[in-house]
Amino acid sequence: MVNKPLFLNEEQVRQHLRMVDLIPAMEKALIDFSAGKVTQPVRSVIKIDPPGGFLGLMPALTPDGLGLKAVTFYPSNAERRIPTHMATIFLVDPETGTPLAIMDGRLITEMRTAAVSAAATKLLAPPDAKILAVLGSGVQARSHVEALRLVRKFEEIRVWSPTRQHAEQFAKEIRGKAMSAEDAVRGADVVVTVTNSKAPVMKGSWLKRGSHVNAIGACRPN
Amino acid sequence: MVNKPLFLNEEQVRQHLRMVDLIPAMEKALIDFSAGKVTQPVRSVIKIDPPGGFLGLMPALTPDGLGLKAVTFYPSNAERRIPTHMATIFLVDPETGTPLAIMDGRLITEMRTAAVSAAATKLLAPPDAKILAVLGSGVQARSHVEALRLVRKFEEIRVWSPTRQHAEQFAKEIRGKAMSAEDAVRGADVVVTVTNSKAPVMKGSWLKRGSHVNAIGACRPN
User: Fold this and answer.
1) What pLDDT score does A196 carry?
2) Is the dihedral of CA A14, A19, A23, A25 positive or negative?
3) Spatial contact of B45 and B54, defined as CB atoms under 8 Å apart
4) Distance (Å) from the alpha carbon of A96 to chain B's nearest alpha carbon
5) CB contact under 8 A, A92 and B104
6) Is A31 on the interface with B (CB under 8 A)?
7) Across the beta sheet with A53-62, what order do the strands follow?
8) Would the ipTM clear 0.90, i.e. be above it?
9) Is A116 in contact with A26 (CB distance < 8 Å)?
10) In degrees, to the nearest 5, what angle opens at C-alpha A33 toward C-alphas A28 and A38?
11) Residues of chain B contacting A8 with CB distance shorter than 8 Å
12) Do A190 and A184 meet the contact criterion of CB atoms below 8 Å apart?
């Protein structure tokens, strides 16, 4: 008989997944993808309306494995104080198709997104970058600060968020400074946009020459 | 915090899933689908070659739920004596996207396939059908005999399989008769084709007028 797959809940994932390991893993994944070693069909998405949610399926075959992520995005969950993004990751043995592991994917999604930004920032941002601007104060803002601190030595972290109070709380937590979006972006070496806003939160004219922008979100065409 | 989803392995699924309940559930699913109440994107498939396997993702949103099945099909598993088809089913709360349950899907796939044939047979086969012909002797042959017996009172079950010994073993198990494919099909009221063959296993000219054929398989264009 076939063994039962390993199941890892979010706490178990948290115990084992380290940002410092994840950044080079994402670098390798991006290199493999660009070298044509990855099969990754366009994700399929089901819209659930009402209440205005999405289920997205993201399968992939890489030199290291076979599997998929099922992710849900429900903006209205914010009002219920439950995560807007939830996910489950499912790994399969590429030799036999046998289910190997099922993992809660919420934290993996949170960390992986920031790890990809960190891999890009490592290679593309000015080596002596000192000022980081974060537009947003949610889960991805926190995760990005953790990840980007591993690839650059920032002396100053500036925070803006649509809700002033959130910006101040978050700035305090990461030893940064809350300010306007324009003040945060002007002069910054690295900028991260991590809001759910469908309207632009910054202007290109604010950007310092040579700065690096990690623009997160906008995963759907609207 | 979000509760952890229920996990059901194959034995737990076996304890709870009854063919007699599954057939009307499949009837309802087919009715909902035909009434346009189901969102079901075309499944995405990744080919893993070598060893010549497939991973298929089948998501759906119905009036009763939201979820997906991830199924693997590895014909070469037969040589290793492990199932050629394995699957995992994943249910999500349509209100919030929260993972609800993860179930081993191998047995569900086996039973659901036969339950759909039974729903069709119930409505389309002659009401007084007496003779069932089964071409094939594997997992689906067994499951189909169980399911079809619930919708018609067969007096005779005929079995053919590419390997004569398999046909005889299976015939003994279900109190049927092993014979040639042509002898099995001629005069049968209901015919089931459940082989992995890519070549035709029967001819239309063998069929009795008014007979009902459940043709299983051929899920890929080759």
Assistant:
1) 84
2) negative
3) yes
4) 6
5) no
6) no
7) A6-8, A99-104, A85-92, A65-73, A53-62, A44-48
8) no
9) yes
10) 110
11) none
12) no
DSSP B91-111: EE-TTT--EEEEEE-HHHHHH
- Measured CA to CA, the distance from residue B166 to residue B72 in angstroms comes to 24
How far is Cα B55 from Cα B76, in angstroms, rounded to an integer?
Answer: 14
Mean pLDDT for B12-27 is 97
Between the CA atoms of B129, B130, B134 and B135, what dihedral angle is there, to the nearest 10 degrees?
Answer: -80
Number of neighbouring beta carbons within 10 Å of residue A165: 10
> Which of B7, B41, B47 shows the shortest C-beta gap to A46?
B41
- Sign for the pseudo-dihedral over CA of B152, B157, B158, B162: positive
Question: What pLDDT, on a 0 to 100 scale, did the predictor assign at position B221?
Answer: 63
Return the residue of A nearest to B39 by Cα.
Answer: A46
User: What average pLDDT does this structure show over A185-212?
Assistant: 95
Give the best residue of B55, B66, B103 to mutate against chain A (max A CB count within 10 A).
Answer: B55
Length of chain A: 222
pLDDT digits over B39-98, tens only?
Answer: 999 889 999 999 999 999 999 999 989 999 999 999 999 999 999 999 999 999 999 999
Q: Using one digit for the tens of pLDDT, what is the confidence trace for A112-162?
A: 999 999 999 999 999 999 999 999 999 999 999 999 999 999 999 999 999
Closest chain A C-alpha to B107 CA, distance in angstroms: 13
B15's tokens: 């304890």
Q: Judge: A51–B4 Cβ closer than 8 Å, yes or no.
A: no
pTM of the model: 0.85
- Backbone φ and ψ for A116, nearest 5 degrees, come out as -65, -40
Which two three-digit tokens encode residue A69?
């992520």
Q: What is the mean pLDDT of residues B211-219?
A: 86
Cα separations in angstroms, A160 against A78, A133, A169: 19, 8, 11
Mean pLDDT of chain B, nearest integer: 94
Task: Quote the CA–CA distance of A55 and B69 in Å, as a whole number.
Answer: 13
Catalytic residue among B47, B69, B130, B203: B69
Instruction: Reply yes or no on whether the pLDDT at B1 is more than 50.
Output: no
Residue A221 preceded by cis peptide, ω within 30: no
Structure tokens at B185: 């099909």
The pairing of strands A65-73 and A53-62 is: antiparallel
| pLDDT score at A4 | 78
Report how far residue A35's alpha carbon sits from residue A62's, in angstroms, rounded to the nearest whole number.
11
Nearest to B82 by CA among A74, A28, A95, A49: A95
